Amino acid sequence: MEILQGRFDAVFKAANASQLQWAHRRLIDSERQLRTLPIIPVDESIAHQFEDLLRNKKLKKIGRGDLLIASFALAKRATLAIRNLRDFRQIPDLKAMNWAN
Questions:
Q1: Nearest alpha-carbon partner for 84 in 71, 68, 66, 61
Q2: Whether pTM exceeds 0.85
C-alpha cells in the first residue's frame, strides 16, 4: 500500500510533462510487480490489534501505515524484518529485527 501511495503521489505532484510520464511509468511498473505478491487479508485479529495500537496514546507519533504493519506482525506472532527500527521499538510486544544488518 505504501508503494502504491507513493506512486500515486508522484503522479499527482508532477511539475511537468516529463515528470508526469516518468511517475506514470513507475506506477504501471509497480502495478505489474504487485500482481505477483500475495495480499494478506486483514482478519479479525489484525483489525483488533490495529484498533488497540491506535488507542495507545504513546504511539500517536507513529504513522498509521507503520501501525498497520505492526498489527500484522503482532497478530500473527511474527518477527518484523524492517530497516527502520526507531518507531517500531516503541510498540509493546513487537518483535522486530533490522534486515539490513
A1: 66
A2: no
Q: Which residue has the cell 517500531?
A: 88
Measured in whole angstroms, how far is the alpha carbon of residue 53 from the centre of its chain?
Answer: 15
**CA 32 to CA 44: how far, in whole Å?**
29
8 Å CB contact between 67 and 87: no
C-alpha distances out from residue 3 to 7, 11, 31, 94, Å? 6, 13, 10, 23
Residue 33 Cα to chain centre, angstroms: 16
DSSP 83: S
Residue 51 pLDDT: 97
Burial class (CB in 10 A: 0-12, 13-18, 19+), 58: exposed
Amino acid at 27: L
Q: Coil, strand or helix: which one is 95? A: strand
Give the C-alpha separation, 76 to 78, whole Å. 5
